[in-house]
Amino acid sequence: MAEWKSICKLDDIPRLGSRIVRSMNGDIALFRTSSDEVFALRDRCPHKGGPLSQGLVHGNQVTCPLHGWRLRLDSGEAVAPDQGCSRRYPIRIESGTVFLDI
Predict the structure, then answer these.
(1) Quick check: helix, strand or coil at residue 15?
(2) What global pTM score does this model have?
(3) In a domain, 67, yes or no
């Protein structure tokens, strides 16, 4: 069963940037694309645990700041030739408010 939590306003997440949500199971990074899509991934690169929230957002991907691994924001999957995945969390936006299913 979904447990939707109000997290922030869409405008609280910078375009082509991120915002961190603290949770009991570790940090979650919210990413906003140039087209105002929002995605949520566990804030750890599957390669060596780098903070994805500090990476560069481009298109629908984020590049890990430690070793340059690229991950798809819509799935959390690493872009080939890299392999691995960061957990993805469902997001919804209603009236400019971002909700996260924790």
Answers:
(1) coil
(2) 0.94
(3) yes
Q: What is the mean pLDDT of residues 43-49?
A: 95
CB neighbour class for 16 (10 Å; exposed up to 12, middle 13-18, buried from 19):
middle
What is the C-alpha to C-alpha distance for residues 46 and 96, in angstroms, rounded to an integer? 31
Give strand pairing partners of 77.
85
Residue 70 maps to a domain: yes
- Region 16-39: mean pLDDT is 96
> For the segment 78-92, what is each residue's pLDDT rounded down to a tens digit?
999 999 999 999 999
Instruction: Report how far residue 47's alpha carbon sits from residue 57's, in angstroms, rounded to the nearest whole number.
Output: 18
- Distance (Å, whole) CA 44 – CA 9: 23
Give the CATH number for residue 30. 2.102.10.10
